[in-house]
Amino acid sequence: MTRRFDAFPYLLLLPAALLTLAIVAWPVMETFRLSFTNASIRATEDYVGFQNYERLFSGGFVAIIWRTLLWVTLSVVLKLAMGLFGAVLLNAAVPGRTIFRVLVMPPWIVPIAIGVFMWSWMYNGQFGMISGLLQRWGFLAGPFEFLGYRNSAFLATVVTDVWIGTPLVTLYLLAAMQTVPRELHEAAWVDGASRFYRFRRVTLPLIAPSLATMALLSAIWTFNSFEIIWILTEGGPRNATTTMIIDTYKTAISRFQYGAGAARSATLLILLMLLTGIYLLLLNRMARRARRLEEASA
For position 147, what pLDDT does the model report? Predict the structure, then answer.
């Protein structure tokens, strides 16, 4: 007996599908279309083929890509490391841990612009707290402008991004740790396993999918992070903190080169899609490993 096709569920999904096409698919397709034109502030535009991409990779954009990857890698690794360490501490049975869980939230709750302006003041060489303390402790002979030099400005943006993003990573990993069955820890403890061994062989494998998910989300957010760098340095000094999103903004908005800016946006989208594909492969492998661990303990 053949089943009749029921179109009603698809009709219910149609408004959401049309909305997704309108706010996601169409802008993406329009961006790719513009990347093959010389669109600018002028009313007309011409098709130029891959000219924007050729200019993109024959100039300094490759260096910007590597700088972006370095910025994202440093930021994500530090957020994951500090978030994992914080989650372990907040998961411990210590008095007042609820208060500590609340106190870890302010960097993420405070609006990004306000938090970044606070860090900008702290980085100030003449009046900032960091320079003042380093001078008082004898590490600096005089005022130091952290945002005025290439290396220090780059590291300053990384520190600020880590400060903003770590609380979310901490709470996410804390929630993942609390789903680990206590029976597994108790069985390992009875067998004489140390606390570090239980964390490495029980907790870490079971929260690995959550850790990978947070790594991907954090990487995407950091790739697209604009406010932190723009408020602190606007991509300076001498392009030391110019990432792909900053360069795209300067090209498309400040210089009104919409075609060239679209080519940069398309390149950023492709990189993020590759990153997502790698994540999905790793997540499937981690999920299979976690299932094998649960089956072995059953």
Answer: 92
Q: Tell me the pLDDT of the chain averaged across its residues.
A: 86
What fold does the segment set 61-297 form as a domain? MetI-like fold (1.10.3720)
Strand partners of residue 37: 47
Q: Which run of H or of E encompasses 222?
A: helix 204-223
Contact 297, 184 (CB under 8 A): yes
- pLDDT tops 60 at residue 1: no
Q: Where are the domains of the chain?
A: 61-297
In angstroms, the CA 181 to CA 185 distance is 7
Backbone phi, then psi, for 50, in 5-degree steps? -90, 20
Structure tokens at 209: 């999918």
Provide CB contacts within 8 A for 92, sequence distance 6+.
none
| C-alpha–C-alpha distance, residues 60 and 296, integer Å | 53
The beta-strand segments (E) located in the chain are none
Q: Token digits for 247?
A: 């360069």
Residue 260, number of CB atoms within 10 A of its CB: 27
Residue 224 structure tokens? 């697209």
The whole-angstrom separation of Cα 117 and Cα 115 is: 5
